[in-house]
């Protein structure tokens, strides 16, 4: 008979031991090798829980508790910790919300690897991504063991029932990030995703209009779609599909739709992925969300693009000093701009490579080329044509942004100018001279970039 969900005080702490693994993988899994288009995966299985026949009550009068959910004991911690200070919403409130929504939520996330996006200090605090299920963990947490081309096997948690849902949310996961494909075949998704991301000057009315255009286009293909807000300024459009096409084929379909829509509605939307080249008054129809493993957002790229470069400089110069690591201002500035610039250039290079049609890589394989040879002789020469102009524009922006380094006393142009102003009080003349110097350095670079764009355009047409 199912046990009623009850709360009890946590037991005294015991020495934690890692949850035992379920033995060696079967021969087929051990011998499987992950490639770019094939990623062997296996799901561990736990005994089915007893049915939950009554509402799960999460206590309000204690900070830590252990509750019974069916036949499983779930430990909950920091229930009274405030996650949304402006509204007074606590972590316990978040868990109660998920417990209420579980019947309609679970069918959409079962059997899928889950990437944990953890907010240990609430919605306004810093977050981090976590792929591997932490240890120790309950033995009833199922895993999706996915082989990656790097020869690593990553054990992702799988949310199969209310108990595992509450366990994951208790780790500080406010939003859930499941894979597009189920664990029994992680290379074949069962939905397509369009991320409608407005530029800085684009309005939500434009986002809504774009979503309606996407919906109408998909309906013309007999493909019903569902929209949801992103929690920011955009809209996500999800399209359920019959599982069969590979992730690469789904990505190619999404790219074709996005590029065609942008071509037919050039004043409303864009499919240009490189942010440096993207118009700021359009809505970006992002098809790259359909790339394999895209849920595994790159922490480096996402974090360092999202944090202002001035904040990064302060962390490197003042924050490291508080930890006993003292850097001179100039090296600190070089490190800060290098890390921040690398995050942006990573996306520029990735977009340039993805702009080359996949068929060219497949053609190279058909004539016996290895992947490194195909990349060196076929893909990269064409990608350079795509990325050179945005790299040039990024370089001009970086040159101007070096003025921020004066905030940590790095001896650059603005810092010298401030020192002269303090000594002479000739602020207008000195800052005007600095502006002219920046202009004198930027204009030649701009002309070089325009020349490269023209030359690359002629080469592309030839």
In words, what does this structure look like?
By secondary structure, the protein is of the alpha+beta class. The chain has helices spanning 27-31, 91-109, 162-170, 204-220, 247-264, 299-306, 309-322, 329-354, 358-366, 371-401, 413-424, 427-461; strands at residues 7-8, 41-43, 65-69, 72-76, 82-84, 89-90, 114-118, 128-130, 142-147, 153-158, 177-178, 191-198, 226-229, 235-240, 269-270, 283-286. The protein has three domains: 32-178, no CATH class; 191-290, Alpha-Beta Plaits, CATH 3.30.70.3300; 303-461, MetI-like fold. Helices cover 44% and strands 14% of the residues. It has a five-stranded mixed beta sheet. Strands 1-3-4 form a three-stranded antiparallel beta sheet, with helices on one face. A three-stranded antiparallel beta sheet has the order 2-9-10, with no helix packed on it. The longest helix is centred in the last third of the chain and has 35 residues, at 427-461. Residues 1-31, 295-300 and 458-462 have low confidence and may be disordered.
Topology:
Layout: E1 7-8, H1 27-31, E2 41-43, E3 65-69, E4 72-76, E5 82-84, E6 89-90, H2 91-109, E7 114-118, E8 128-130, E9 142-147, E10 153-158, H3 162-170, E11 177-178, E12 191-198, H4 204-220, E13 226-229, E14 235-240, H5 247-264, E15 269-270, E16 283-286, H6 299-306, H7 309-322, H8 329-354, H9 358-366, H10 371-401, H11 413-424, H12 427-461
Parallel strand pairs: 15-16
Antiparallel strand pairs: 1-3, 2-9, 3-4, 5-6, 7-8, 7-11, 9-10, 12-14, 12-16, 13-14
Helix pairs in contact: 2-3, 6-8, 7-8, 8-10, 9-10, 10-12, 11-12
């Amino acid at each position: 008979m199912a046990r009623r969900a009850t709360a009890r005080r946590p037991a005294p702490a015991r020495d934690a031991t890692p949850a035992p693994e379920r033995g060696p993988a079967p021969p087929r899994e051990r011998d499987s090798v992950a490639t770019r288009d094939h990623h062997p995966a296996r799901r561990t299985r736990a005994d089915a829980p007893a049915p939950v026949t009554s509402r799960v009550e999460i206590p309000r009068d204690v900070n830590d508790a252990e509750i019974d959910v069916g036949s499983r004991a779930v430990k909950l911690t920091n229930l009274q910790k405030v996650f949304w200070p402006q509204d007074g919403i606590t972590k316990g409130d978040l868990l109660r919300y998920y417990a209420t929504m579980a019947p309609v939520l679970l069918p959409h996330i079962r059997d899928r690897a889950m990437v944990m996006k953890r907010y240990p200090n609430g919605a306004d605090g810093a977050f981090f991504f976590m792929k591997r299920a932490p240890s120790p963990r309950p033995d009833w947490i199922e895993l999706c063991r996915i082989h990656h081309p790097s020869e690593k096997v990553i054990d992702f948690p799988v949310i199969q029932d209310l108990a595992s849902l509450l366990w994951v949310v208790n780790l500080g996961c406010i939003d859930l990030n499941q894979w597009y494909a189920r664990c029994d075949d992680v290379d074949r998704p069962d939905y397509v995703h369009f991320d409608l991301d407005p530029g800085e000057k684009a309005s939500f009315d434009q986002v809504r209009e774009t979503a309606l255009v996407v919906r109408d286009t998909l309906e013309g293909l007999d493909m019903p779609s569902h929209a949801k807000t992103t929690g920011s300024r955009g809209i996500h459009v999800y399209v359920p599909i019959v599982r069969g096409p590979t992730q690469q084929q789904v990505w190619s379909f999404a790219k074709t739709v996005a590029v065609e829509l942008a071509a037919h509605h050039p004043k409303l939307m864009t499919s240009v992925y490189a942010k440096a080249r993207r118009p700021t008054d359009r809505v970006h129809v992002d098809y790259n969300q359909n790339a394999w493993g895209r849920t595994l957002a790159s922490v480096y790229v996402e974090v360092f693009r999202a944090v202002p470069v001035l904040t990064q400089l302060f962390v490197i110069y003042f924050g490291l000093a508080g930890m006993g690591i003292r850097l001179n201002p100039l090296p600190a500035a070089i490190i800060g701009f290098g890390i921040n610039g690398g995050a942006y250039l990573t996306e520029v290079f990735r977009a340039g490579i993805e702009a080359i049609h996949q068929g060219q890589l497949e053609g190279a394989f058909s004539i016996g080329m290895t992947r490194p040879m195909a990349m060196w002789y076929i893909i990269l020469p064409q990608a350079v044509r795509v990325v050179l102009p945005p790299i040039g524009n990024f370089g001009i922006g970086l040159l101007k942004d070096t003025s921020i380094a004066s905030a940590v006393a790095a001896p650059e142009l603005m810092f010298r100018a401030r020192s002269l102003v303090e000594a002479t009080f000739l602020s207008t003349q000195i800052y005007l001279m600095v502006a002219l110097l920046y202009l004198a350095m930027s204009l030649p670079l701009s002309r070089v970039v325009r020349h490269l764009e023209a030359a690359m355009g002629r080469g592309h047409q030839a």
